[in-house]
């Protein structure tokens, strides 16, 4: 009876009832902690806005629900003392200046659905970052570095006519970001549901991103037959790529994430895709691309269409920055949490950020997906543990430059 009462009293600290982590140990570590209940309730309201808890398929880019979520997140960022704006790609950015005009420490997550494995996971990561900013603001803590949060509105880069996400990233000069941190929800193959440990990505996968333009061989670009050909070819290509992805080895092996096709009804009608490829080595990515290209050639011959492909991004596999790993290790030690090292999969590409800045990815376990759901939101305790680790890692990284300058 005493033990049960003590556990209930500790639940407001970090709540580790459903996980095997010790709530009393986390409280004993001292320092700032996020508000778990505020975090979970804010996430629930976002999911309610999408009108589909556990299924974020309604968060299509520029949909009514998508815009409503962006408005809610904008208010949250402003409540955390941040100035907000949207960049050329539609990404929401919040920023608060630090004591020095140093490169920014950046947190982020996406709120779209780049793959069937993602669903609501991006919302959870976005709210973890927001809650960290709110906790700092509530405590009157000003970092030495500027602090930014990027809510990626289109992480799969589905915009068909321009490389807007590359444009947004390329506006940042190398060295303008001190570090990028993100909380993500791991699917079953990465971090089993109910696992007491957090995951920390220690090696990033090799990735390539391709623009794919599907055009008709019909000499008359305005005929209904041409549109039928394009739609048929697009449908076959999407299905073939999905089959290839399903038949590929599990996570940590080659994975393919095609973006959704869009047909433009104009004089030069075509269909555009954004193709994402990833594997543990670049030669495996090349092999995967060759397989996709073969599918495109076959479908093109059968449907009287052509697939024109242009590579827009290639990042080799690489280890994450040891300073980031060390900072996360210090954070989990302070919180008396355990963590396990992981290899990143396609979802950990983090929008091309590895080309610009050191990257840290903290993976929290999702709930049991035995109900047939690809990926559910994490338990409140797991997400709070991830957010607290994010907060402590941020504070550790903020100290690094100050210590070097002494």
Features:
406 residues; alpha/beta; Aminopeptidase; Alpha-Beta Plaits; 2 domains; 9-stranded mixed sheet; 5-stranded antiparallel sheet; 10 helices; 38% helix; disordered N terminus
Q: Got a strand count?
A: 14
The largest sheet, given as strand count, sense and whether it forms a barrel, is: 9 strands, mixed
Terminal-residue CA separation: 53 Å
Beta-strand residue fraction: 15-25%
Mean pLDDT: 75
Succession of helices and strands: HHHHEEEHEHEEEHEEEHEEHEEH
The name of the CATH topology of the largest domain is Aminopeptidase
Description:
The structure is a single chain. The chain has 406 residues and is α/β, with parallel strands linked by helices. The chain has helices at 2-10, 23-28, 36-49, 64-79, 121-138, 164-170, 224-247, 282-303, 322-334, 380-405; strands at residues 83-86, 92-96, 104-110, 147-152, 177-186, 198-204, 206-216, 255-258, 262-263, 270-279, 305-315, 318-319, 339-343, 359-365. It has two domains: 33-205 and 317-405, Aminopeptidase, CATH 3.40.630.10; 206-315, 2-Layer Sandwich (Alpha-Beta Plaits). The protein is built from ten helices and 14 strands. Strands 1, 2, 3, 4, 5, 6, 12, 13 and 14 form a nine-stranded mixed sheet that branches. Strands 7, 8, 9, 10 and 11 form a five-stranded antiparallel sheet that branches. Helix 3 packs across helix 10 (380-405) and helix 4 runs parallel beside helix 5. The N and C termini lie far apart (53 Å). Mean pLDDT is 75; it is low at 1-29, 53-59, 158-165, 250-268 and 369-375. This is Peptidase M20 dimerisation domain-containing protein.
